[in-house]
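go over whats below:
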Amino acid sequence: MNLETKSELPQLYRHHVFACNTQRPPTHPHGSCGASGAQALWDRMGKAVEAQGLNDIGLTMAGCLGFCNSGPLMVVYPDGVWYRATTPEDVEEIVNSHLKRGKRVERLVMVLKRS
């Protein structure tokens, strides 16, 4: 299979979630999503996606997404929606609303402002 052009790439996922799991020491000045409990949240998300049979959702653990003190962070593509989920209930709401039904969870959307 020739994968040289974009049109030939298969679309594997309806949504692809990139979730930061960077772990820095607790005293690091930038903080980290890992130090904010990201691993347990992303584990929960993976189980929720699997339990609901959402086979068209990709979940990829990512390195730093660049807004370390705001974590735990994730971004959903192709929508380009950034979320800050801090509780298991937040994760369940994102899965049920955005990933399953295509409706953003506005209260968890992280608005990125350019300076």
